[in-house]
Every structure is written in structure tokens, then in C-alpha cells.
């Protein structure tokens, strides 16, 4: 990463953290004076951000979205809230905002996939092949899930997928999306209700909900 100008992800140098437990906030703060240190966050989270972007907009768009996420994060690093020890929600918030600039493309992609058989190989099948689909089970196809996701309002889909595919908890999702935790719960509940109606009662996000309830107990 260059100390002046915008970073080019392809040219970022290898940087080793000073210790194995340095917090993301410490890395960001250090990068204010040592811009190359920001590469540590890229090493930690680039794969996750790329995977999330690919699931939402496809592999072809994921490279650009991942790169742009880290460029924006680097540019905004001086505004990072150092009380947030983990940068994952911040990065997921950036990439979700970028996805938001392609709402129509995402909806078209989901609708197109909903028209193919669940056994069809390819980018769409890979994108929906995770624990959300596993919760639907053999009774319901990936195609039906894609169609149901396409019909969700964007604000509901963002909450659902940043939790299900980004693996954020409710507090992290709230931080990522810039909304209260109560709003996260409300939108997730509405999204799940609509999915259950579309999938004949199956609840593809129940596992995460059960985990959250256990954590609060």
C-alpha cells in the first residue's frame, strides 16, 4: 500500500501484525501513521468480504466489490470508531452499501436463479449453498429460496443476509447497517415471516435465532 493516494489492492505489500492478538482497532489506529499496516485488515477479512459479495451479486462482481470495500475503508480509516475492537461490522457495512448500488442487478440475479432447478451447477447454486439453504431442507429447493429472497424489500434482505451470510450477530448487524438493534430484530422477523410463507413454513434462519437466544440466556 502506498503512503499517499488511494491503495491498489493488487499492489498491497505483505505486512505482519506486531503480535497475533492485535485488535482491529489498534491496526486501524496504527495505520494512521503507518498506512501499510492497513493490509493486516485485508489479510484478515478479504476472503469473507469477497464471499459475501459473490453470494449477493455473483463471482464476476465480487472482485470489484471487495477491492472497493477496502479502498473506501482505507480512505475512511481516520473516522473509524476506535472503541469498536473488531472491524468486521464496519467492513460489512461498506460492502452492503456497495451492494445497495446494484439493487436491481441483485434482484434480477435472484429471480433468474429462481427459474432454474436447484440441482443446476454454477455461480447461483454456489451462492445459495450454505447453512440457510440447509435449514430449508430437501422439501424446498434453492430456486424457491432465491425467488423468496428476490421478493423481500431491500432493507429486509440486507438484515437477513448480513446475518445469515455475513455471520454477524444482531449487535454487529446493527453497527454494520447503522440502525438500532431493535430495528434489526424487527426487520429480521418480518423477513423470516415472509420466507416462511414463501417456503411453506420452513424457517431458513432459525438456527441463527436459536444461537442468539442461547447467548442471551
Percentage of residues assigned to helices: 55-70%
Q: For the report, how would you describe the main beta sheet?
A: none
Structural class by secondary-structure content: mainly alpha
Strand content: under 5%
Mind telling me the C-alpha Rg?
A: 18 Å
The overall pLDDT, averaged over residues, is 78
How many strand segments?
0
Looking at the structure, what is the overall shape? globular
Order of helices and strands: HHHHHHHHHHHH
Show unreliable segments: 1-19, 117-140, 210-217
Query: What's the number of helices?
Result: 12
| Spatial separation of the terminal alpha carbons | 44 Å
Protein model, in words:
With 217 residues, this protein is mainly alpha-helical. 65% of the residues lie in helices and 0% in strands. The protein contains 12 helices and no strands. The chain has helices at residues 24-33, 39-57, 59-75, 88-100, 103-114, 123-127, 131-136, 142-151, 154-164, 170-177, 181-198, 206-216. Helix 9 packs across helix 11. The chain is globular, with a radius of gyration of 18 Å. The N and C termini lie far apart (44 Å). Residues 1-19, 117-140 and 210-217 have low confidence and may be disordered.
